[in-house]
Design goal:
The complex is a heterodimer of chains A (108) and B (122). Chain A is an all-beta fold. Chain A has strands at 9-12, 18-23, 33-37, 44-47, 61-66, 69-74, 83-90, 97-99, 103-107. In chain A, strands 1, 3, 4, 7, 8 and 9 form a six-stranded mixed sheet that branches. Chain A is globular, with a radius of gyration of 13 Å. In chain B, the strands form two sheets. In chain B, strands 2, 4, 5, 6, 9, 10 and 11 form a seven-stranded mixed sheet that branches. Chain B is built from no helices and eleven strands. Chain B has strands at 3-7, 11-12, 18-25, 34-41, 48-54, 59-61, 69-74, 79-84, 93-103, 106-112, 116-120. The N and C termini of chain B lie far apart (39 Å). The chains are: A mainly beta (108), B mainly beta (122).
Chain lengths: 108, 122
């Protein structure tokens, strides 16, 4: 079955840039979307279609994709950005969707 | 503003069928280019896509769960449902329903319910 691979954890100091990667064989042809999940809450869409930001999401959140890797970048990370982040995409058939394993972002 | 709310029994016995319903408010379930999806998350673990259904009734399922999962839609009640058969303790999780926007082959989950904790135990 199709898999998306993320690093388990990323740590930055406040104000630094955090980069979270997501790798998958179908990403050259399929979009990646990114979700933020804080403890006890439902996930929140922060980036869709590789690099688009929904309304209400701070500009410090950005996304990019190249080849088999998509990247979520948080420029000037803040303590409030501490959360788990998940990428979401589909396999080459477009019929089966999958989340990456998730990355715990620590800002301290 | 679209809102989704999961409902169902919090406790299910092993080998039985887990049944959950998602009630949609703030918009008709039968209008628009939306898929209606189920996702779950075991305690302390990551998100797992279970499957989804379109208003036409066409559906897609996670291959690892396909033999046990059925998702259905009731447009008259503005609800969609999840049935997961032959459950074990490994199916204990928070179950989320969500609305997925699709356009040109790109799909992403925008609106989520708050989640319902389902425990499988005798």
């Amino acid at each position: 079955s199709y898999e998306l691979t993320q690093p388990p954890s990323v740590s930055v100091s406040p104000g630094q840039t955090a980069r979270i990667t997501c790798s998958g064989d179908a990403l050259p042809k399929k979009y990646a979307h990114w979700y933020q999940q804080k403890s006890g809450q439902a996930p929140l869409l922060v980036i869709y279609e590789d690099s688009k930001r929904p309304s209400g999401i701070p500009e410090r959140f950005s996304g990019s994709s190249s080849g088999t890797m998509a990247t979520l970048t948080i420029s000037g990370g803040q303590v409030e950005d501490e959360a788990d982040y998940y990428c979401y995409s589909t396999d080459s058939s477009g019929n089966h969707w999958v989340f990456g394993g998730g990355t715990k972002l620590t800002v301290l | 503003q679209v809102q989704l709310q999961e409902s169902g029994p919090g406790l299910v016995k092993p080998s039985q069928t887990l049944s959950l319903t998602c009630t949609v408010s703030g918009g008709s379930i039968s209008i628009g280019s939306y898929y209606w999806s189920w996702i779950r998350q075991p305690a302390g673990k990551g998100l797992e896509w279970i499957g989804r259904i379109y208003t036409s009734g066409s559906s897609n399922y996670n291959p690892s769960l396909k033999s046990r999962v059925t998702i259905s839609i009731d447009t008259s009640k503005n609800q969609f449902s999840l049935n997961l058969s032959s459950v074990t303790a490994a199916d204990t999780a928070v179950y989320y329903c969500a609305r997925e926007w699709c356009s040109g082959g790109s799909c992403y989950l925008v609106y989520w319910g708050r989640g319902a904790l389902i425990t499988v135990s005798s």
